[in-house]
Each structure stands twice: as structure tokens, then as C-alpha cells.
Design goal:
Blueprint (H helix, E strand, L loop, with lengths): L1 E5 L10 E3 L2 H10 L2 E6 L10 H11 L5 E4 L4 H14 L5 E2 L8
Parallel strand pairs: 1-2, 1-3, 3-4, 4-5
Helix pairs in contact: 1-2, 2-3
Keywords: Cell cycle, Cell division
Protein name: Cell division protein FtsJ
């Protein structure tokens, strides 16, 4: 089981595998069991964003156990949370913001 941190800019926290694009994140979600997923929304000009990853999760049915949203985009965070809440099984823990700093 791995933890995944999706971000094209911020440094990856210890204990996480970094995905710098939606495609990388989707590959990890498809091939690994993900415990904690932390999502950014904006992933570079013209690139698929965090919402595309959430849509991939919904379409594939491969949910992480727990999901955080560390994006600075309020609209992006709301969109991702809303889509996930509509479809995630009840055992998936959805946080409405970033992980707490240790």
C-alpha cells in the first residue's frame, strides 16, 4: 500500500510517492493500492488537472482509503470534493483540505 502526492510544483512529503501529472497519478491508482491520496488541482497550462484524476477514480472504481486536497484553487477543491462525494463508497474518508503539517 502506498501514499500518493499529486503536484507539479510543491515538494513531496516524506512517506509519499510523487506524481507530477494526472497520467502518472492515474497509473499509480491503476496499479497500486493507495492508502492516502493528496491532490493538487492545477497541474500546468493545458494539462489535465486534479479533477481529471478524480474522474478517473470514479470511472475505474479504484478509490484510495483517504483523500486530501492541498490545492490553492478553491473552485478546483470544491469540484474535486463534490465529484468524489457523489460517487465514493462510504468507507472512503474525504477531507476538505490539506493534510496537517507534522
Amino acid at each position: 500500500m502506498i501514499n500518493v502526492y499529486l503536484d507539479d510544483y510543491r515538494p513531496c512529503p516524506q512517506g509519499f510517492v510523487l506524481a507530477v501529472s494526472a497520467a502518472e497519478c492515474n497509473l499509480l491508482l491503476d496499479h497500486e493500492e493507495v492508502d492516502v491520496l493528496s491532490l493538487d488541482f492545477e497541474l500546468g497550462w493545458g494539462q489535465p488537472n486534479g479533477l481529471a484524476v478524480v474522474q478517473h477514480i470514479v470511472d475505474s472504481g479504484r478509490y484510495p482509503r483517504e483523500c486530501y486536497f492541498h490545492t490553492s484553487s478553491a473552485a478546483g477543491r470544491i469540484s474535486m470534493i463534490h465529484l468524489l462525494q457523489q460517487h465514493a463508497p462510504p468507507e472512503v474518508i474525504i477531507h476538505h483540505g490539506p493534510m496537517k503539517q507534522k
